[in-house]
Design a protein that fits this description.
57% of the residues lie in helices and 11% in strands. The chain has 94 residues and is mainly alpha-helical. The chain has a two-stranded parallel ribbon. The protein starts with 6 loop residues before the first strand and ends in a 5-residue tail after the last helix. The mean pLDDT is 84.
Amino acid sequence: MLKTEGIKIEFDDEAKDLICEICYDINQTTDDTGARRLVSVINLILEDISFYSNEIFEKYKLEDKEVLITINRDYIVKKCEGLVKKKDFKKYIC
């Protein structure tokens, strides 16, 4: 859906790994919803980008090309810290 707004999203490898760890840990400590957990976490991560997609595109577009947003580990930590207990979340921050 973001591509229709001229925005392309990519996740760096560290971000992908952290997302998997977060989903696994939440599934282990709460109801195990399997892959549905991944959908919920990705929706949370992309929430602001989706909501402000038009403004992002207008601000950063160059010659009507797509805007590329790379999601990194720091962004995941910022967006997901409320999902995991504070004491457990420290293990994700190096």
